[in-house]
Amino acid sequence: MESFSQNSISKKTNSPTIPISFLLFFFFHLLFTIPVTSSGSVDHFAVDCGNSGNNQAYDQRNWIGDIGSTLFSLIDPANNTQHIKAEASKSNVPLIPYGTARLSRSEFSYSFPVNDSQKFVRLFFYQSSYGDFLHSDSLFSVKAGNHTLLKDFNASLYAGGASDDIILREYCINIDAGQRLNITFMPNQAYPNAYAFINGIEVVSMPTFLYYTNPDDQNAMMLDGRTQQFAVNSDSALETVYRINVGGSQIPPAKDTGMFRYWDLDNAYLKSRERSQSISAAFGVSVNLTYRDDQNYFAPDEVYKTARNYGMNEKSKFNVTWEFEVDSVFHYMVRLHFCEFDEHIENAGDRVFQIFINDALVESVADVMLWTQNQRLVPVHRDYAVSMPNSGSFKNLSIKLQPHPTARSSYRDVLLNGIEILKISDYNDNLAGPNPPPSPALPTTPSSEPSKNRNKTKVISIIVGATSGFIVLSLIVLLIYRRFIRVPVKEGGSWWGQKSADSSKKNKSHGSSLPSDLCRYFSIDEIRAATNNFDDIFIVGVGGFGNVYKGYIDNGTVPVAIKRLKQGSQQGLHEFQTEIEMLSQLRHNHLVSLIGYCNDGNEMILVYEFMARGTLRDHLYDSDNPPLSWKKRLGMCLGAARGLHYLHTGAKHNIIHRDVKSTNILIDEKWVAKVSDFGLSKVGPTGISKSHISTVVKGSLGYLDPEYYKRQRLTEKSDVYSFGVVLLEVLCGRPPLKRNVEKQKSSLVEWVRKCHREGVIHQTVDPLLIESITPECLKAFSDMVLTCLVEDGNERPSMNDIVWGLEFAMQLQEGKEEEEGLDVEGKSEESALIRKVTRVEESREGFTSSDGSKASRLTTSSSENQSLSSGVIFSELGHPTVR
User: Fold this and answer.
1) Residues 711-744 pLDDT 10s
2) Are residues 198 and 242 in the same domain?
3) Among residues 87, 511, 579, 854, which is most buried (max CB within 10 A)?
4) Kindly report the CA angle at 188 between 183 and 192, in degrees rounded to 5?
């Protein structure tokens, strides 16, 4: 699973090794070109560990031995590493880099002087016994900077097939300015004779933002097909798990785009292969692909020249499905590659289908011609973030394509050219999945080796077996103790308070950090009763980590919102605790109140006051709710601003929300706006000399303060910037980032700035507001909002200033209405509703553009136009699917 070679994961053995056919082509390059990175130069190190000099492989490409090299540093604090020739038993194993190895029973590192950019780091292993270093004793971890790449890794655990002795791992790591790339190998000192080894290391520069999120990129990566935006920030590491040329053959590294990536065929992963077929483009020698912005490094041409579908104009609603085994405790980035090469496809709408990942709809209207603006032979890709259900070590990640059920497209089939699946490091900078400990069942020393080694292995096996048995027995006793005794415990900074013997007392609080008079504990039985055992009919929304239910407590008299973390998930524990500790001590008319929580067994649940009208975003765009007048929108903005002002100045400690957006502002039955979702919140800087908090960047693309994103310095003015984006959403009736529009309009902030400079700010106003907003109010409001969005945080207003500015805008609005004696509120809402209904009907029937051409009957997927929100907090309400 952890190798980027796809045949490396056998469903029978889970063996992460590489097919020999890949190795035969791996080094067919002497010179190569990589697209220039931000620093203007590229790095390429190919290190033949345990060897000396320049070693030319059969592909005529040079590998540098690590003995005596001055191009990089080998750091050996204990002076204990050895360079040993591998005892290769297979003639088809390349001698370079697998013929020699660097080994040690103590820690050692390689340090590379690289430029500041993003890198591929590849580790090459050949599992074998090296002299007195038995292959069953190899047990070590590998770190690159702060990132844990492998933990308690034993190559023998993955051996088993004809080619499984060769193992490759590929990672993506960002290097900041002034840093060196240090790769450290650390034997597990808890086991006698444990050692670390490495046969080869490759470091290759990649284009900036090849896989990492570009804050200026408008193509949003959504989590689980919902509205939550998931950013792969530069402080994360990635591991390539699968890279697939769909419908085609294997593509060796020499034929990649200069970065030596390997592309496997997809046959082994097809679930519905009986209906699918491989198709190839009929390319002549003079026909070339057209790459937008010259970005031809995303995949080689061969990926885009083959695809898979199940027959043109097929009338049956078959689907094509692939399944990939992955480690279920991580998030994944799934990249899908497309290129329309069929000459029968001429316009958007000719071939329309849907895409599901893990049965979640991630593209409701997938139309390659729409994405390429009616151009064939233009490659495109789409990225999606995926969270796996955390139950067991490994799960299948499924990708399914099926025809659109209602679109009137000419061809009833699907199209896919390539798949990439990358694992994203967790909040501990870890990429290593669960590895089993060394087992007595592992292959032991050959009989020809000294008897003392056999005895040593036997002793180690006995010790390991006894230790493992003791640990397992201790865990069973501990779980039984916690399950039935339920003693509150706080450990490792994560709150684990369980239900105590008197938890039936409803006002009983658990955990020393939570005030007992403000936070109520619910048993799981009470929660099940409130939701009719989590009946789907009570689901009112879907959050980043689970469903949101409407429930009734206190004998069915009090409605509440119940947010339930997906069972067994280890993602969101910190956010769960933060939400409780923050909200239990905050009370304000414009903050959503936390009523209580449940932490029973595997269940982590938060109970809030019920907000009957959903999120602010639900009343701005992409919903069936009646449109709101400007005055009503302004009132909700004012309420949210007062809530944020209280956080910044009115609480015991000033609090920075860190995830202000329109989906985190909820509306109650009386149209009162309240700020919600405090899973990412931070206590503000303390002390006279402190002006900011240094912390990793979290939040939502489109709303992120650029100063915070660039410098990792969080201040109250970061909330001000995000709230300024929300105010623009309210004014313009559209999300912060938008696909499939002209470039100058894709970013809401930049578009409004441009129109404001040119004196045409009225062109940005939501058409549904034209008859309700007054010019005087528009000017005051827009001027104030744009001060929230200046680059320098020191020049932005405080939340108190924003409250005053909104009150002033409200006075201007009301004063003008009274002066003219008009019922702007009622009149505008009625006419706006008529216009909205008319616009919806036009989109259903199709329309003729101004140039007389027939436009597509399809509208873009609503998921593409929704606000971009974080997928990394527990308390995300997201876009309600049932209300």
Assistant:
1) 788 889 999 999 999 999 999 999 999 877 777 8
2) no
3) 579
4) 140
Q: Across residues 28-54, what is the average pLDDT?
A: 66
Q: How confident is the model at residue 675 (pLDDT cuts 50, 70, 90)?
A: very high
What percent of the chain stands above pLDDT 70?
69
pLDDT surpasses 60 at 837? no
Does the annotation place 563 within a ligand binding site? yes
Q: Give the domain range for residue 310.
A: 238-424
Q: CATH number, domain at 815?
A: 1.10.510.10
659 belongs to the catalytic site:
yes
Amino acid sitting at position 242: Y
Q: What one-letter code names the amino acid at 382?
A: R
Model confidence at 298: pLDDT above 80: yes
Are residues 715 and 601 both part of a single domain? no
Q: Which of 367, 659, 705, 766 is catalytic?
A: 659
Tell whether 70 and 118 lie within a shared domain: yes
Q: Which of 609, 627, 656 is the last residue in one of the domains?
A: 609
Interatomic CA distance for residues 623 and 879, integer angstroms: 10
Report the number of distinct structural domains present in the chain: 4
Contact 527, 551 (CB under 8 A): yes
Same domain, 208 and 248: no
* 292 and 151 together in one domain: no
Residue 359 in any domain: the answer is: yes
* pLDDT confidence tier of residue 462, bands split at 50, 70 and 90: low
Please give the Cα distance from 482 to 549 (Å, whole number): 28
What tokens appear for 873 in the block? Answer: 């907090």
Exposure letters 702-733 (e unless 16+ CB within 10 A, then b): bbbbebbbeeebbbbbbbbbbbbbbbbbbbbb
Residue 204, domain CATH: 2.60.120.430
674 vs 356: CA distance, rounded Å: 34
Q: Which residue has the higher pLDDT, 798 or 871?
A: 798
Query: Do residues 543 and 878 touch, judged by C-beta distance below 8 A?
Result: yes
Q: Same domain for 545 and 411? A: no
Q: Tell me if 121 is assigned to some domain.
A: yes
CA distance 15 to 156: 10
- Is a pLDDT exceeding 50 seen at residue 770? yes
Of the pLDDT bands very low, low, confident and very high (cuts 50, 70, 90), residue 867 is very low
Nearest C-alpha neighbor of 173 from the set 123, 248, 101, 225: 123
Which band of pLDDT confidence, cut at 50, 70 and 90, is reported for residue 61? low
Is residue 508 pLDDT above 50, yes or no? no
CB-CB contact of 191 with 251 (8 Å): no
Does the residue 129 lie in any domain? Answer: yes
Enumerate residues 6+ apart whose C-beta is below 8 A from 794.
Answer: 717
Give alpha helix (H) positions in 36-163. 95-98
